[in-house]
Amino acid sequence: MGGDSLQAYDVPERVKTYDIDMDVMHPLRHKMIEIILDIVPFDQEATLKVMDLGVGTGILSARVLKKFPNSKVTAIDGAEAMMDIATERLGPMADRLNWIIADFRQLPAETLVADSYDLVISSYALHHLNAGEKLALLKKVVCALKPGGWFLNADITVAEDESIEQRLQQLRVEGVTSRASASDKRFASVESTRAYLSQMQIAENDQPQTAASDLKIIREAGLPAAEIFWKELNEVVIGGPKPADR
Ligand SMILES: C[S@@+](CC[C@H](N)C(=O)[O-])C[C@H]1O[C@@H](n2cnc3c(N)ncnc32)[C@H](O)[C@@H]1O
């Protein structure tokens, strides 16, 4: 049985090292954020209403707020402990970000006003939902997007084939072990890294889908033009626009 993805992040001790840990565990996160920023088709001066699902310490929202100086972000996260680090990262831009502490599975109605967002973004957060929960959330997100608005998600996936998945996990464990600081006991050896990552995946209730399943879910939610824009090993940038006539 999996753990609780909200409790797992709502721990001040863990949050302190969150971004350093992410750089060790997901070094492609920065590249994936660049890809999201490249894909967003709006004029840089446009007045944009944005929602970030699982804002965490604010890395993606900060980049969006910087690139689009007339944007405002509704930042959703279930873990309040992440908020302080995000606020520090954002500096004066924090005034343009409205925090909503909520579970993706029970978003308050005021965050989901129909046809109200230009852009909905997410990074490394939606794999905490199962396929049914993701579809239910994305249907609401599509309804809340303006016609012509975009949904873009950077996240982890799982391979279709078990032997390929095993190989990808082996590469991941080796990569994390080699990038980690020598003094970090969690990642001192391939064995300790594997044990730590397995325990973390259970505690956080990780439930990544295959890239094909994620694409199907997004299209079924109401974004028929959705695409996988980028994929490397088990990480993807995926999403698309809401049809202009809906
Ligand atoms: C791995 S972090 C990603 C944070 C940030 N987007 C990033 O790229 O670093 C996942 C975030 O999703 C949030 N989260 C996980 N499950 C959630 C849920 N069911 N509802 C709301 N937030 C959730 C966690 O609290 C955490 O801040």
Describe this structure as you would to a colleague.
With 246 residues, the protein is α/β, with parallel strands linked by helices. The chain has two domains: 5-157 and 206-241, 3-Layer(aba) Sandwich (Rossmann fold); 162-201, no CATH class. 41% of the residues lie in helices and 20% in strands. The protein contains ten helices and seven strands. The chain has a seven-stranded mixed β-sheet with strand order 3-2-1-4-5-7-6, sandwiched between helices. Helix 7 (131-144) packs across helix 10 and helix 8 crosses helix 9 (190-203). The longest helix has 18 residues, at 162-179. The radius of gyration is 18 Å and the shape is globular. The N and C termini lie far apart (40 Å). The mean pLDDT is 95. The structure holds S-adenosylmethionine. S-adenosylmethionine binds at residues 5-6, 9, 22, 29, 54-57, 59-60, 77-79, 82, 103-105, 123-125, 128.
Radius of gyration, in Å, reads 18 Å
How many β-strands, per DSSP? 7
**Helix run count:** 10
Tell me the series of helices and strands, N- to C-terminal.
HHHHEHEHEEHEHHHEE
Oligomerization state: single chain
Distance between the termini: 40 Å
CATH class bucket of the largest domain: Alpha Beta
Low-confidence stretches: none
Q: What is the level-2 CATH architecture name of the largest domain?
A: 3-Layer(aba) Sandwich
Question: In CATH, what is the homologous superfamily of the largest domain?
Answer: Vaccinia Virus protein VP39
Number of domains: 2
Q: How many strands, what sense, and barrel or not for the largest sheet?
A: 7 strands, mixed
Shape: globular
The CATH topology of the largest domain corresponds to Rossmann fold
Strand order of the largest sheet: 3-2-1-4-5-7-6
